[in-house]
Amino acid sequence: MYRHTRCAVVTSLLISSVVCGGAVVFAPAAGAAVPAASCTVTPGPNDTYVVITGEGFTGPRKLNDGESTVDLAIGPDGTFRVQRFQKNVDYTVLAVNEDQNFIFVNCKKVGSAATPKPQNPQSASPVQPGSRRDIAQGREAGSQAGAAAAKKSCETKPVADKSGQQHSDAYWQAWTQAANRAFNRVCNGR
């Protein structure tokens, strides 16, 4: 009987050491928390685009705007930065693989980027409709929109979203010309 008890004790010790040993090997270190992933959407200084930034992600990831999903370039430090012209949408970062942490992360909208203060009183004046500054702003916004549209698809040319924006006809003409030029330059360069 003594021999049977000793054998049972040795067997249970072996089993518990294997089980406990395996648990120790696979258990995460105490205090080693997985960093939280976050995503923010910040309007650009002239409110014609948004900048989406994120941190704490492992690649591969995708960015969803409710209508389309595009690949994200996640850096080795777990960050990304994307500029988009769809301002009034909710963005979500999606995992590609099921074993990734943070399967989806909704991006949080934050206040607009700080606009530089004018150096002289003349630049503080509002842009006059049809002025050189008005036309230059139209060209700049159109060029950005055209390049963004071309990167998304060379099938659909950019269309100005005039809802809620008070700009002159000269602005919109400059916007359209610059958008088409940028769109054609990117698509023809492929």
Describe this structure in words.
- By secondary structure, the protein is α+β, with helices and mostly antiparallel strands.
- It is built from 3 helices and 8 strands; from the N terminus they run αββββββββαα.
- α2 runs parallel beside α3.
- The longest helix is centred in the N-terminal third of the chain and has 25 residues.
- The radius of gyration is 28 Å and the shape is elongated.
- It starts with a helix and ends with a helix.
What attributes characterize this protein structure?
4-stranded antiparallel beta sheet, alpha+beta, 190 residues, 3 helices
Task: Quickly describe the structure.
The protein has 190 residues and is of the alpha+beta class. The protein is 35% helix and 18% strand. It has three helices and eight strands.
Q: Could you state the order of secondary-structure elements as H and E?
A: HEEEEEEEEHH
Number of helices: 3
Distance between the termini: 84 Å
The mean pLDDT is 74
Which shape, going by the Cα principal axes?
A: elongated
Task: From the alpha carbons, calculate the radius of gyration and give it in angstroms.
Answer: 28 Å
Secondary-structure-derived class: alpha+beta
Largest sheet: 4 strands, mixed
Residue share in helix: 25-40%
Beta fraction? 15-25%
List segments where confidence is low: pLDDT < 50 over at least 5 consecutive residues: 4-32, 115-124
Got a strand count? 8
In which order are the strands of the major sheet placed? 5-2-1-8
